[in-house]
Write a structure and sequence with these properties.
single chain; alpha+beta; 6-stranded antiparallel beta sheet; FBX15 protein; F-box_dom
Length: 437
């Protein structure tokens, strides 16, 4: 029952975050909280030099002429949008400064954890059932690695697996982040769609990664792992692995409905020749089980000759079966750890693979982080120096394939990588360089 003029006067004393919050109460409050006069004053104050702000008194600040055109020629909410754009642009500039320095080994920014903290970035998943109802799962545990972050969600209120249709992964950032304060969980936020997964017929339409006494694991690209209780056939947890190369862009620059699409690569003048193939590539590979690392290595000067191009792929041999000196032992017993509020477990012969392939000028060419598993290929090894079971790990997406061959050495209780080959899609290479292979 309070007159709008009085409410408007009260709103004029609020800061930007409070105005955004009060605008969610009802339609009247929303309209009043969009007042251009209030927002232009907030917008102007954030642009004034600090020295000027300190010299001005509060009475003088209110007497500053706002300009008829600035107020009445603009639609309601114009200066609110301008203020939000200005503030988010300042944070993005700060983030770009943080991610500029590159690690000489991975070729990727090494201040990713600091950038995530500055942005106030978090992640949520939204499960949508067949009736259209959405279930938001916010509570998550993070595990940071050199080139990726692994996010684990578990809840006691998962919807029944039989009625779930899709899962959406969002990056969530404060609408008005403050670089000097920790993010306010109850303040206004914006969502950026990272990926959408279809979970209908999950057990038939996805890859079975592994199983232990309590759960079964199913994998969907990109980087999604769903744990299903064996007894109840219901969701136990959801785990997502995100590579840093796509992390900030997809988590911040997309909208709530449309995923962020990176700009096309601009190739530099080089001696790339379809008759010759690729050269000067480098690979950074990280294999881990959430809490422990099994292998972390960098491989330089990878190349592909014309004879290595076949069936729509260019082959890059990282570890050769014949070169015993470059065979790689893995540290520890491979397994993927998981947990919920009550139970914990470890699924053997599963791990997360982080791959970063850089082109000849050190630009990220193909990057992913995904759960993979080992499969028994043969019980005996035909290699002279090894006696043990042979296992393989395979990964494939639209940009390429990875094939890893390992041997289990019973005497030393360790796995050894005896072959590691990348198959890069010719379509990916052609789009990257604007050429034809």
């Amino acid at each position: 029952s309070m007159p709008p003029e009085i409410l408007l006067k009260i709103f004029s004393y609020l800061d930007a975050l409070s105005l955004l919050s009060v605008g969610c109460v009802n339609k009247l409050f929303y309209d009043l909280a969009n007042d251009n006069g209030i927002w232009l004053k907030i917008y102007s104050s954030c642009l004034q030099p600090k020295k000027t702000i300190w010299k001005m008194k509060s009475e003088q600040t209110e007497a500053v002429p706002l300009g008829y055109a600035a107020l009445h020629d603009k639609k309601p909410g114009y200066w609110k949008k301008e203020y939000i754009l200005k503030q988010t642009a300042a944070v993005k500039t700060r983030l770009m400064q943080l991610v500029k320095p590159l690690d000489p080994y991975t070729g990727l920014p090494f201040k990713n954890k600091e950038a995530v903290k500055v942005s106030g970035l978090s992640w949520i998943i939204v499960l949508k059932d067949k009736n259209g109802k959405e279930h938001v799962i916010e509570k998550a545990k993070l595990s940071f690695k050199d080139t990726s972050v692994t996010i684990l969600w578990y809840s006691t209120n998962w919807p029944c697996l039989d009625v779930v249709s899709t899962l959406k992964l969002f990056g969530v950032t404060p609408l008005l982040p403050d670089l000097n304060k920790p993010p306010n969980k109850n303040g206004p936020h914006r969502r950026s769609l990272i990926a959408e997964y279809h979970l209908a017929n999950l057990t038939e339409g996805s890859i079975a990664v592994g199983v232990d006494n309590l759960v079964q694991l199913f994998s969907l690209n990109p980087g999604l792992l769903v744990g299903i209780w064996k007894e109840k056939n219901e969701i136990a947890f959801v785990m997502v692995s995100l590579h840093y190369h796509q992390l900030l862009e997809r988590s911040i620059l997309g909208s709530a409905t449309v995923q962020y699409a990176p700009p096309p690569n601009k190739p530099v003048l080089d001696d790339i020749d379809p008759e010759y193939g690729l050269h000067g590539y480098s690979l950074h590979l990280d294999m881990h089980g959430r809490s422990c690392t099994y292998l972390c290595g960098t491989f330089k000067n990878l190349f592909c000759r014309k004879g290595d191009i076949a069936n729509g792929y260019l082959r890059l041999t990282v570890v050769s079966l014949k070169n015993y000196r470059k065979h790689l032992p893995l540290t520890g017993t491979l397994g993927l750890s998981w947990e919920t509020d009550v139970f914990k477990g470890n699924v053997k012969d599963c791990y997360v693979m982080n791959l970063t392939l850089l082109d000849e000028i050190g630009k990220p060419f193909w990057c992913f982080s995904a759960p993979v598993y080992m499969e028994l290929s043969s019980k005996t090894s035909g290699l002279y120096d090894y006696m043990g079971h042979i296992y393989t790990t395979d990964y494939a997406d639209s940009e390429g394939k990875v094939h890893v061959k390992l041997i289990w050495l019973e005497e030393t209780k360790e796995y050894v990588i005896v072959s590691l080959v990348l198959y890069v899609s010719t379509k990916k290479v052609n789009n990257w360089y604007g050429t034809t292979y």
